[in-house]
Amino acid sequence: MRGWRTLTLNALAAGAALALEVSRFLVGVDWAAHLPPATALWMLVLVNVANIALRHVTDRPAGWRKSGR
Question: What is the reported pTM?
Answer without folding.
Answer: 0.47
